[in-house]
Write a structure and sequence with these properties.
mainly alpha; two-stranded antiparallel sheet; about 30% helix; globular; binds heme C
C-alpha cells in the first residue's frame, strides 16, 4: 500500500506532469563515449606509483618481497609500534587480540587470533605490510614487517625465537588452523573454472 501524503502536503503542479523520457540525443557529448567525462582533473599514475600500491601477497606467498627478520628483532618493532593498541603480549588489547585462543573456536566463546584462526602466515605479512600500524600504514620496512610477523608467530608458539623469516621460510610456516576451514558447498560458490 502506498503511503498517504499528509493533508497539508501538495505536489507542485509541474511535478505531477509526466516528464518526457530522456534520450541519448539529450546527453552531453562526453557521456555518450564509453569512458566517463574527465573534467580535466587528475592524471594517470606513473609505473613507480602503481608499483607502490601493487602489494598483494597471495596465500601461496607469491609477491613476498626480499628482506627478513626474527622474533627478537620484531619484539622491538612491536613494543614501539604496536603495543599501544594490541597490548604488551598481544592478549590485552584494547584492539584486536593477536595471541592465544588456540582450541577455542569450537567452544562457546571462540577467540579468533593469529594463532587460533589465521590459516596462512603469508597473508599476515600482506595485512601488516598494507594496514598496520593502523594510524601509519605502509610506514614499516619489509625487514620490520618480516620481524613483526616472526614475533607474533613466536608469541603464538608457532615458530622459535631465533627462526629467521624471509620469502622462502615464511611460506613454509604451517598455521595451527590451516585445515580448520571447510569448503563452501553452496552450488554457486567456488566453482572451479574449466
Ligand atoms: C592505533 C592503533 C593500532 C596500532 C598502533 C596497530 N594496530 Fe593492528 N589493529 C588495530 C585495529 C583497530 C585493528 C582492527 C582493524 C580492522 O578490523 O579493520 C587491528 C588489526 C590488526 C591485525 C588483524 C587481527 C585479526 O586477527 O583480524 C593484525 C595482525 C594487526 N593489527 C597487527 C598490528 C601490528 C603488527 C602492529 C604494529 C606494527 C599494529 N597492528 C599496530 C589497531 C592498531
Amino acid at each position: 500500500m502506498a503511503a498517504r501524503a499528509p493533508d497539508n502536503f501538495r505536489l507542485k503542479p509541474e511535478a505531477t506532469k509526466k516528464q518526457p523520457e530522456a534520450t541519448k540525443k539529450d546527453q552531453p557529448e562526453a557521456a555518450k563515449k564509453k569512458h566517463p567525462p574527465l573534467y580535466g582533473l587528475g592524471r594517470a599514475p606513473t609505473a613507480e606509483e602503481l608499483q607502490k600500491l601493487d602489494i598483494i601477497i597471495g596465500s601461496d606467498g607469491n609477491g613476498l618481497p626480499p628482506g627478513s627478520g626474527t622474533a627478537g628483532e620484531g619484539r622491538i618493532v612491536y613494543q614501539t609500534r604496536c603495543v599501544e593498541c594490541h597490548g604488551a603480549t598481544g592478549k590485552e588489547g584494547p584492539f584486536d587480540l593477536l595471541v592465544g585462543g588456540r582450541g577455542s573456536l569450537t567452544s562457546r566463546r571462540p577467540l579468533k587470533t593469529i594463532g587460533s584462526y589465521w590459516p596462512y602466515a603469508t597473508t599476515l605479512f600482506d595485512y601488516i605490510n598494507r594496514a598496520m600500524p593502523f594510524d601509519t600504514p605502509g610506514s614499516l620496512s619489509h625487514d620490520q614487517v618480516y620481524a613483526t610477523v616472526a614475533y607474533l608467530l613466536y608469541l603464538n608458539g608457532i615458530i622459535g625465537e631465533h627462526d629467521r623469516l624471509d620469502a622462502a621460510t615464511l611460506r613454509k610456516v604451517q598455521m595451527p588452523n590451516r585445515n580448520g576451514f571447510i569448503p563452501d558447498d553452496r552450488p554457486d560458490v567456488g566453482k572451479k573454472k574449466k
